[in-house]
User: What shape does this take?
Amino acid sequence: MNSHHISQSQVTTNGDLPVLQKLAFAYKLWQGIAPHISRMTRYSLGAKIDNLFTDCIEQLLLASYAGREHKLKYITEASNKIDFLKYFIQLIWELKAIDNNKYITLSTPLTEVGKMLGGWRKQNEAQPPADIRRVG
Assistant: This one.
């Protein structure tokens, strides 16, 4: 599938979190780009990027089903993986394995995912843990 022919509306909206939908959209874009990267880069840095995408998706799924006491841990892990992912995509661009347009196409939704995760993280940090009870 050509990465330039994927639109956000083609991402399955089966009740997933908007942040998960946005990340799935970016991953589908990556899947359209990865086969066109040189073999050496595709099987080294490209494989790392692919693993970070799937690890982050996994963390978001875990966060979506976790109880309040564990949710922040998964959100934080997903946020860290997004930061790593953005760095490695920048690196693959700097190595000229992908062109400017592909870099921008991938970076834009990942930046949005990072912002969405930051908001979700702040929201969960603001909530006191469910097991804290007033002693009086």
Summary: The chain has one domain: 17-125. The domain at 17-125 is CATH 1.20.1440.60 (de novo design (two linked rop proteins)). Residues 68-94 form the longest helix (27 residues).
